[in-house]
C-alpha cells in the first residue's frame, strides 16, 4: 500500500514539474513576444522621427530659398532658423546646422551663424573619419551621403539666383 502511495506522489510531482516547465516556456514566449513588439515599436518611432526631421529640413530649404527673394526677406530666414532648430531637436544632422547657419548669415547673426557652420563642419569631419575607418575595415561606409555632407544641405538650384 505504501509503494502505491509513493508511486502516486511521484506521478503528481512529475505532473507538477511538467506544468511548471510549460508555464516557464509560456512566460519565456510572452517575454520574447513583448521584446519583439517593443523593438518593432521603437523602429517605427525612429522612422517617424527621421521622416519628420527630413520634412522640417525641406521646409527650412524652402524658407531659405524664399528668403533670398525680395518677397521672403527676413521672416523667411527666421522661419528657416525655426525649422532647422526643430529638426535638430529631433536628431543632430549636418544639413540642419548648415542651413541654420546660412539663414543666420542672412539675418546678420554672424556669431551664431559661425557657431552653426563650425558645428556642421565638425560633425561632418567626425562622420567622414568614421566612414573612412569603416571602409578600411571592409564595411563599406559612405562619407558623402546627404546627411553627412554640408554641401548636400542645399539644392542644386541655389546658384541660379543670379539669373534675374
Automatic annotation (TrEMBL):
Domain of life: Eukaryota
Residue ranges with Acidic residues bias: 1-20
Region annotation (Disordered) ranges: 1-35, 130-164
Signal peptide start and end residues: none
Compositionally biased intervals (Basic and acidic residues): 130-139
Protein name as annotated: Uncharacterized protein
Organism: Micromonas pusilla
